[in-house]
Write a structure and sequence with these properties.
The complex is a heterodimer of chains A (142) and B (142). By secondary structure, chain A is mainly alpha-helical. Chain A contains 7 helices and no strands. In chain A, α2 packs across α3, α2 packs across α6 and α6 packs antiparallel against α7. Chain B has one domain: Orthogonal Bundle (Globin-like), CATH 1.10.490. In chain B, α2 packs across α4, α2 packs across α7 and α7 runs antiparallel to α8. The chains are: A mainly alpha (142), B mainly alpha (142). Chains A and B meet through α2, α6 and α7 of A and α2, α3, α7 and α8 of B. Chain B: This is Hemoglobin subunit epsilon.
Chain lengths: 142, 142
């Protein structure tokens, strides 16, 4: 699955706005993930997952930074996220199904904050982009 | 009980025609393979065509109106959807995976319309609802 030029442009344009609230969006996405899909909390037994917790915000930032890297290197996401890919494959081993769930929550958070920008075309481009990122992160699993 | 509250309080503010049309259009745009069920709908060649397509709008309204029935019968969704389930299996031949896809798209549309009011707790209640509806629609498959 490759992104068209138009899709890449849509991702980059929205990212410029999202980046200004990246930390908040990251934290909100995780909050949505843990609320809607409680089973995802099993990967964070060592975290304080209460709303607004330092760890939640810190981890949300981490996730959004990585997405930012992918946006910056949208023509070669695989190289940009190579280390993260290995981390997820060999150390974290988060079941692949969860990437879809987090992607969905990220889309919800972005849609809630930028409703007029989140047109159907932008929605499609971002869904595809996050799907790409998820693929890269899980491609070394086996 | 609180979850029912979260569901009905959002539902009371939903414009069924607009939301339904938007959700179905986004499904067809974000996941183009879903267009396979709508070859009789005419022009689906671009996001603009899809969004403006009167058959898409009408059908979106139909689907979401049906959701309204589920919300009126939250304790009896399986019975409410028994006939529709048979229809989707025997006549329409729709893979139940598509019910999940549409459910998630609906959630994103609600997030974009209700922004801050569509809290993580709200999303959780709605994810449960779309899950139950999808399950009920798939129940009579054979």
């Amino acid at each position: 699955m490759t992104l068209t030029q138009a899709e890449k442009a849509a991702v980059v344009t929205i990212w410029a706005k999202v980046a200004t609230q990246a930390d908040a969006i990251g934290a909100e996405s995780l909050e949505r993930l843990f609320s809607s899909y409680p089973q995802t909390k099993t990967y964070f037994p060592h975290f304080d997952l209460s709303q607004g917790s330092v760890q939640l915000r810190g981890h949300g930032s981490k996730v959004m930074n990585a997405i930012g890297e992918a946006v910056k290197n949208i023509d070669d996401i695989r190289s940009a996220l190579a280390k993260l890919s290995e981390l997820h494959a060999y150390i974290l081993r988060v079941d692949p199904v969860n990437f879809k769930l987090l992607s969905h929550c990220i889309l919800c958070s972005v849609a809630a904050r930028y409703p007029s920008d989140f047109t159907p075309e932008v929605h499609a481009a971002w869904d595809k982009f996050l799907s790409s990122v998820s693929s890269v992160l899980t491609e070394k699993y086996r | 009980a609180e979850e029912k509250q979260l569901i009905t309080s959002i539902w009371s503010k939903v414009n069924v025609e607009e939301c339904g049309a938007e959700a179905l259009a986004r499904l067809l745009i974000v996941y183009p393979w879903t267009q396979r069920f709508f070859s009789s709908f005419g022009n689906l060649s671009s996001p603009t065509a899809i969004v403006g397509n009167p058959k898409v709008r009408a059908h979106g309204k139909k689907v979401l109106t049906s959701f309204g029935e589920a919300i009126k019968n939250l304790d009896n969704i399986k019975t409410t959807y028994a006939k529709l389930s048979e229809l989707h299996c025997d006549k329409l031949h729709v893979d139940p995976e598509n019910f999940r896809l549409l459910g998630d798209i609906l959630i994103i549309v609600l997030a974009s319309h209700f922004a801050r009011d569509f809290t993580p707790a709200c999303q959780f209640a709605w994810q449960k609802l779309v899950g139950v509806v999808a399950h009920a629609l798939a129940r009579k498959y054979h």
